[in-house]
Amino acid sequence: MTHRRPVALAHACRLINHGPTVLVSVSHEGRRNVMAAAWSMPVEFTPPRVAVVIDKSTFTRGLVLGSGLFALCIPCRALADLTTTVGRTSGRDEDKFARHTIASFTGPALGLPLIEGCVAWMECRRIAEPHSEAAYDTFFGEVVSAQADDRVFAEGRWSLRADNADLHTLHHLGGGQYGVVDSVVSGKVLDPT
Amino acid sequence: MTHRRPVALAHACRLINHGPTVLVSVSHEGRRNVMAAAWSMPVEFTPPRVAVVIDKSTFTRGLVLGSGLFALCIPCRALADLTTTVGRTSGRDEDKFARHTIASFTGPALGLPLIEGCVAWMECRRIAEPHSEAAYDTFFGEVVSAQADDRVFAEGRWSLRADNADLHTLHHLGGGQYGVVDSVVSGKVLDPT
Question: Among B146, B140, B107, which Cα is nearest to B126's?
Answer without folding.
Answer: B140
